[in-house]
Amino acid sequence: MYKIAVIPGDGTGPEVVREALKVADVATQKAGIKCDYTFFDFGGDRYLKTGEALPDTAVDVMRQFDAMFLGAIGHPDVAPGVLEKGILLRLRFELDQYVNVRPVKLYPGVECPLKDKGPEHIDFVVIRENTEGLYGGMGGFQYKGTPQEVSTQIHCTTRFGAERAIRFAFDLARKRKDMNQLHLVGKTNVLTFVHDTWWRAFNEVGESDYPDIKREYAHVDATCMWFVKNPEWFDVIVVENMFGDIITDLGAMIQGGMGIAAGGNINPNGVSMFEPIGGSAPKYTGQNVINPLAAICAVQMMFDQLGEAQAAELIESAVVKALTCGKVKSLSVGKMGLSTTEVGDLVAGYVADA
Ligand code: IPM
Ligand code: MN
Questions:
Q1: For labelling alongside 312, which of 34, 117, 125, 320 has CA 20 to 30 A away?
Q2: pTM to 2 decimals?
Q3: Is 135 a residue of the active site?
Q4: Both 97 and 140 in a single domain?
């Protein structure tokens, strides 16, 4: 029995969570496992009512769970940063979910914006360092609101933080047995302190512990170019937090868009949190039009992380069937040809029939 904390969150979060859990229920039943879901109301509405983004006990409560599943965080009536930092980033940091795992996989049946690229070209995983860099929160204002205003936002990388993300990525490259290759993405030509630490950690760890994995390096700007021009060059990528945030949105686009992009905030020794990466899409709330596939893929990642390969595999094959059966016209809002509920039913049906 797995104990799962569910945070449906804001906007369309609850709608996609509902469909993902519908699929999870069928998959767990088939795989002979059980999940017990506990729902938490963290999000914009709760914040507007209570004035607190997360109750102080929340982090410790989360530690009792085997995994967490998050819909979306973001509310139009709450200032930018409050919920992101107060809920999402706080959970990532305090639960030490030190890597953000973002598979970029183009499934068959999905329209790719890149000319002449298909599923055989787009299948890689980005390992984004998830607790440091510009996200660490160092910096501040001086003389705020005056013409002399000074603001700093400091990137802090620790060797420890870089190294553990790098090791996670090397392990994944080995496990995938695909190209046995790991790319470090950085900016060693300009950011010569931080990215020097990353560069040495990458090469030292690789040379001593992963001689079987080929090491490659790409600057972050060039990486954006290669994602579009030659995505088939990538197998696993390891990257610091801010650059990782940026390139994973580009990655989402080449795999078919936010409608299918899922991620996991992973603490290999603790509780991990899985989420569709698309955001709360407030203007579509309650309309039953948003694509639940990203949330369904996030649940698939969750079972994978829990070691439930069969449940994960059932969901992934059902997603592929749903994408190739001709009923899902597009992954974009308003063009799917099916409602949120109908996409959930379709995938759940394929899981049941497997
Ligand atoms: C993501 C999101 C978050 C991030 C925001 C919502 C804080 O963009 O998960 O990529 O920047 O990490
Ligand atoms: Mn992002």
A1: 117
A2: 0.98
A3: yes
A4: no
